[in-house]
Amino acid sequence: METQELLSKVRKLDIKARGLSKNVFAGQYHSAFKGRGMVFSEVREYQYGDDVRDIDWNVTARFHHPFVKVFEEERELTVILLVDVSGSQNFGLHGQLQKDITTEIAATIAFSAIENNDKIGVIFFSDKIEKVIPPKKGRKHILHIIRDMLDFQPSSSKTDVSVALESLSRLVKGRSTTFVLSDFYTHNNFEKALSISSKRHDLIAIQVYDKFQEQLPNVGLIKVVDAESGQESYLDTANRDVRAAHATAWKHKQEQLNSIFNKAKIDNVSVSTTDDYVTALTKLFKQRAK
To answer: Which of 7, 120, 175, 209 is most enclosed, with most CB atoms within 10 A?
Structure first.
């Protein structure tokens, strides 16, 4: 991508994502993603209704009337975006590529994170770890992330979600809140890796896919190319049975994916390239805030 074109895209995405994080997700993100716990802040005089278990007996004895400990949320989180950059991310027949939607969602989450004083890092993966951007704070850091997401060229076109999940704890020390952004279109079983990783990290799965993957349009005979393997085949989309078989296979795949997420107790949401991802993220945040 030419430098001027890239800078223009970065600026547009900066304005859009920053606006969403401030005007739409400002409170929702904070409510949905809690800090690591409660830490002591100060003491104050006891007030009617305070929990007697919070009384600081040392201070109370010194001043001869009750004082209570005040705690506040230890807010700062380490947020990781685990981003699929495999060949399938360049798929899209409805005006936008999966990669475009993934980038917008990632940018919105990133700005929401720094609005709450959280650190944000990124791990790009295909069937291997392609690039790691260590967690930091600040708008300049977010712009670096956006630029890389728009212009990054992976060395592999294949996908292996398990490789990304297994590498997460090795690359990120301590607990993190990690968003896995992928279409999860992989032939590799990642259920075990997801289960193990979810015990150490707070995982959230965001599936981004093209509507074409869900339902074939009736446009006659078409050639399709697997973006990851390069394999070519032809589909007669005018054939009702072909379209029905495709829809059934997709439904079965989604049921399997939901089963994997449910077993590991992973919050998740699916977004197509024609969906409003703001609605999807709002639903996800509200679900977690309950």
So the answer is: 120
